[in-house]
Amino acid sequence: MHKKLLQQVYSSSDFNTNGHALIDQLTAHLEDKLNGKSPNAIHWNDPEDELQFWKDFLYHGNSKNLFQEINKRTTHIHHPHYLGHQVSPPAPITALTGLLSSLLNNGTAVYEMGMSSNAIERIIIEAICNKIGFNNNAGGFLTSGGTLANLTALLSARKAITNKDIWNDGNQNQLGIMVSEEAHYCVDRAARIMGLGNQGIIKVPVTKDFAMDTHVLEAKFKEAQESGIEVFAIIGSAPSTATGIFDNLECISEFAQEHNIWFHVDGAHGGAGIYSEKYKHTLKGIAQADSVVIDGHKMMMMPALTTALLFKDEKNAKATFSQKADYLLTDSEHEDWYNSGKRTFECTKNMMAIHWFTLLNLYGEEVFDANVTLLYDLGSLFADLIEAEPNFDLALRPMSNIVCFRYVNPNFNFEEQNNLNIKIRQYLLEDGEFYIVQTKLKNVHFLRVTVMNPFSTEEHFKALIHKIKAYVLK
Predict the structure, then answer these.
(1) Which of 19, 149, 229, 378 could be bridged to 224 by S-S, CB 3.0 to 4.6 A?
(2) Where in 136-229 does DSSP place strands (E)?
(3) Is 317 exposed, middle or buried (0-12, 13-18, 19+ CB in 10 A)?
(4) CA 131 to chain centre
(5) Rounded Cα–Cα distance for residues 270 and 298 (Å)
(6) Which residues are bridge partners to 310 per DSSP?
(7) How would you label 433-456 residue by residue, b for 16+ Cβ within 10 Å and e otherwise?
């Protein structure tokens, strides 16, 4: 009985039938959403109602409708009205590489479990390092998301810069990192996981343009030293998640070199700009970084999660988790590159390298230039439209595809103004035609657009602005 059930589970003919049906569904989905044939980017549902629907479906739903229901009851990333989080509408070919990875299921911690993917990953890492401007000593690996990559980079920094063997002996003194007050929350989280605490997270204020204020770095560093904090790293945002503004990486690099501390660039979103001839200037100074993070699933059209963590000196990548698992790994120096379990948190990870390799193999580096450049251009265009509207306020001119703005009623006080924009965002969410998010900058509530879809146009932007105006004026 059990074997018969398992034979059904692993039926290749069922896989063929279900697979073709799903591809047909997803093809129709792409054609509909990319062309904006259906109006909504999201079909909002109350969380408790959604939970109840799936509880009922688990035991009473028609399994033949499962994939259709999931597709229907989700956020449509490929719709040109999707202007929300920093999640890329994946290139369709990467859905197929994801399928290949899922079915083959070759974990890549050790070479014999992922021969092709380990070799492919090595090629991808070398290509990205070269594009950054690193020399032949560079290296790195792919990992599951920017949060994990940033944590790993800071662990590498701690091991490389501090004089104590913290991996074996634990913390001996108060350590700290310097980071913009506008940096992504995952950096703060990483620091706390590492045991740095509040005092070890030295927040550097930002300028009126929301970039790290490099003029106060010396004062902040001295203040930390006087408090008994050993600063071992400084992080540059490229860009800040909330604002899309890039820190001055050149200035931060000079400061790091002067004080012999680690310089890390969180380029999870904007690091892909190294491929854009028009916008690579936003990353000037990145080649001086000790480590860099770039997400493939943000600006590079790949499914989540796949993140590149690059090191100027590959030996730092190898040394982070100095630990021996005799049944898996040997100590042979020349084997390190193809046993990635030595360098990552994951002992098992999917074959994410094939997303990167396939896009490069089919379309070349130009595809990343095209995507980043177009999306940044569209961010600038949206900002132009907002600036032309008398009752809209642009937080600042965007440096990327992230644009913060708000509707302004001159008769409202500060709190009323914030509440108005909160209501606008909630209305848009429940209405569903457009999907945007929100943020707070110095306690001011802004609506936030991230142009992730290359098929969003000026007409879509104008329609969003018109919808906001119609809601406020009704």
Answers:
(1) 229
(2) 139-143, 175-180, 201-204
(3) buried
(4) 19
(5) 8
(6) 140, 292
(7) ebbbbbbebeeebbbbbbbbbbbb
Torsion of CA 85, 87, 88, 90, to 10 degrees: -130
Helix (H, G, I), strand (E, B) or coil at 62: coil
DSSP conformational letter for 176: E
Q: What is the pLDDT along the chain (474 residues), one digit of tens a residue?
A: 688 899 999 999 999 999 999 999 999 999 999 988 899 999 999 999 999 999 999 999 888 899 999 999 999 999 999 999 999 999 999 999 999 999 998 877 778 888 888 899 999 999 999 999 999 999 999 998 888 999 999 999 998 898 777 767 677 788 999 999 887 778 888 888 888 888 889 999 999 999 999 999 999 999 999 999 999 999 999 999 889 999 999 999 999 999 999 999 999 999 999 999 999 999 999 999 999 999 999 999 999 889 999 999 988 877 766 544 343 444 444 446 677 766 777 777 889 999 999 999 999 999 999 999 999 999 999 999 999 999 999 999 999 999 999 999 999 999 999 999 999 999 999 999 999 999 999 899 999 999 999 999 999 999 999 999 999 987
Under 8 Å between Cβ of 425 and 436: yes
User: In this structure, what token pair is assigned to residue 414?
Assistant: 């500060």
Give the contacts of 323 (CB within 8 A, at least 6 positions apart): none
Q: How far apart are CA 183 and CA 429, in angstroms?
A: 26
User: How distant is the alpha carbon of residue 297 from its chain centre?
Assistant: 6
The enclosing H or E element of 230 equals strand 230-237
Question: Which residue type does 255 have?
Answer: F
In 382-436, beta strands by DSSP E: 392-394, 402-407
8 A C-beta contact, residue 113 and residue 107: yes
Q: Which tokens in the block code for residue 463? A: 């329609």
Q: How many CB atoms lie within 10 A of CB 458?
A: 12
The dihedral formed by the CA atoms of 381, 383, 387 and 389, expressed in degrees to the nearest 10: 80
Torsions phi, psi for 320 (to 5 deg):
-55, -50
Nearest to 353 by CA among 86, 153, 127: 127
Could you tell me which residues come within 8 angstroms of residue 84 by beta carbon, excluding any fewer than 6 positions away?
41, 75, 435, 436, 437, 450, 452
